[in-house]
Every structure is written in C-alpha cells, then in structure tokens.
Amino acid sequence: MPTTVEKKTFQALLDAVKSFPLPAGWTKAANVALPNEDLDPPLTADRKFISVEIDLNRPIATDRVSQSLEPIRQGILRCAIKWPRNAAEVDAVELAGQLAAYFKTGTKLYREGLQVRIDDPPEIVAVPIMQTDTHKTFAVLIRWMTYPPVPA
What we know:
By secondary structure, the protein is of the alpha+beta class. Helices cover 21% and strands 34% of the residues. The chain is built from 3 helices and 7 strands, in the order H-H-E-E-E-H-E-E-E-E. Strands 1, 2, 3, 4, 5, 6 and 7 form a 7-stranded mixed sheet that branches. Strand 4 and strand 5 form a beta hairpin.
C-alpha cells in the first residue's frame, strides 16, 4: 500500500524536530516529547522540555475543474516549551526564538519526493499560555503547507 501524503508530511516534520540542535545538557529522550512517545526518564518538576504536536488542518482544493490534482495540505507544528515555574522565563523565550529561527520562513523539508514548506514566520507566544503546579508553557507555532506535485 502506498504511503499517504499525510504520513510523509508527518514524518518530514518529525525528522526536522529530531534534527533541531538542543541546548547543552539536553537529550532527545529526556527533553523532547514527540507524539506518542514518553520522556525517558519520566518527567520531574524541575525538568525543562519541549512537547511536540503536529496538527493537520483542512486541505485546500487546487483544481476545481478536472479535480485531478491533489489538494494543498496545511497544518501547524506546535512546539510547547515546558519550563519549571522556578526557572528563568527569559531562557524559555530564548529557546522559543531558536526554534523559530530553525523553522524560519522559506524552510523546505523533504520526505520521499514530497516537499513540506514553511511559508510564514513562526509565531512565538512569549507569555505563559498555561501553568500547572510545576511548569509554565510557552509556545512556538509553525504553520506548514504541503503542495501537490504539478504534472508535466
């Protein structure tokens, strides 16, 4: 069975997140929570980490006449920076800026002949959008689009 555009898009975005250079002392296993993966070792109140979600939104039709072209797929790569309540917020904002710079406008990701593009600048929510007893959450929202191949 062929791989779907959605799966290729999801994998391209995951690959990009996995290649993001982490701060000194961080590891992918302990400080990056990918979809359907647990942190290892389990979370503690003083651990800083990034929680990653990939949202696939409504496709955009590109060919209303013959209806033979694939739609444009779009969505949001949401990186929630979880920061301990007692840690300096400015460092969380710095990490958000590094993520935004990594996924800057013009970024192109490839997976099995598919191109995922970042056409808009990432949005940084530099105030805590959620707080628990142990952590504050800052967000980086990265809008992506997957364009259909154009027939020759």
